[in-house]
Amino acid sequence: MVRPPLPFSPDVEQPSEGEQKTIDGIIQGMTEQSETVEKREHHAVRASHAKSTALAVGMLEIPEGLPAELAQGLFARPGIHPVAVRFAQGPGERLGDRVSTHRGMSIKVFDVPGEKLPGHTTETQDFVLASGPTFPSGTAEGFLRDGTVIGKATGLPEGAKSAVSSLARNFNKALHAFGMESSKADFFGHPFSHPLAEPYYSQAPIRFGDYVAKLCAFPVSLAQDALVDWRLDPKEDEDGFRHATVAHFRANEVVFELRAQLWRDADSQPIEDASVEWPENVSPFVTVARIRLPAQDAYSAARQRYFDEAMTFRPAHSLAAHRPLGSVMRARLQVYQALSEFRHRENGIPEENPATIEAVPA
């Protein structure tokens, strides 16, 4: 029998002593990483998920009749909301696809009324998701530690990064043969699979109205099912993930179910450590909405400039009812803003958090 969800209260979070100093260290380290990339590319790019693979618009459909524990926040009222969705590769630099690491799926939902987090002034809700159900670093302290290693590696030649990615990918493949896996190995060496054929996770929890949850976007269309066995040969195409994803969008509707995993057990579902996977036998993922992205040109020149250069996706762009929770999320609230400000300042391009879908180019 599934346990009832635990209620949200402000004391579900337990910040560690000195956390702000840790967050300041993350910002400093990732800014230095961005400066290294800017010197090489002569342009500032996102400090993570820099290389986009598809840039789509569509609709988020919230069904009628959700049970009370799921009809929370954005999902409290049935209806249809426009969305803009950015798919991207993980590194904070634009590398060839043989460096296949973790991936991201950032969702901006429009026409979202309600109380927002301080500083968020438009009627939007962002969900920033990534491949893999956990964030390997776990906490802000781990984020700083692992980020320091990544930062030192940023100046290495691309061939060295490809070798690390290959080693991590093969190690994880060996683990899978024994029924095991490593989230950190997957982070650095993700399979050469199709970006539209896998789920994307919030990894860390968010407030879910009266409760707490993690979110997942899970692919559900038959056309996406057919992509499960697709594998890229990066020797043939160093931008193959983008080419394959854009080609699929050109001919097919892409559909993801947005699912919530409610917080039901404080022991097995920690709030502060995002490296712990919440067991689905304690709390299964349950569908709260469906994202429909119709067939489209998902990489027009105008759209690429807008999504990659101007538009921002942040956990801080949120309803108060979906406030990010836990150590990693508290870090992200500050880190995303600082790095976005750096990127836009260096490039001389004002950052945009559009209020309506009409701002997004065709």
Overview of this structure, please?
The chain is of the alpha+beta class and 362 residues long. Helices cover 30% and strands 19% of the residues. Strands 1, 2, 3, 4, 5, 6, 7, 8 and 9 form a nine-stranded antiparallel sheet that branches. α1 runs parallel beside α2 and α1 packs parallel to α8. It starts with 18 loop residues before the first helix and ends in a 15-residue tail after the last helix.
Supply database-style keywords:
single chain, alpha+beta, nine-stranded antiparallel beta sheet, 8 helices, 9 strands, 30% helix, Catalase_sf, Catalase, heme binding
What overall geometry do the principal axes of the alpha carbons give?
A: globular
Tell me roughly what share of residues is in helical segments: 25-40%
Radius of gyration computed on alpha carbons? 19 Å
CATH topology: Catalase HpII,  Chain A, domain 1
CATH class: Mainly Beta
Element-by-element helix/strand order: HEEEEHHHEEEHHEEHH
GO molecular function: heme binding
InterPro entries: Catalase_sf
Protein name: Catalase
SSE map:
Layout: H1 19-41, E1 52-62, E2 79-89, E3 103-110, E4 124-130, H2 140-153, H3 158-177, H4 183-188, E5 200-201, E6 206-208, E7 211-219, H5 222-225, H6 240-251, E8 254-262, E9 286-293, H7 301-310, H8 327-347
Antiparallel strand pairs: 1-2, 1-9, 2-3, 3-4, 5-7, 6-7, 7-8, 8-9
Short description:
Helices cover 30% and strands 19% of the residues. With 362 residues, the protein is an alpha+beta fold. α1 (19-41) runs parallel beside α2 (140-153) and α1 runs parallel beside α8.
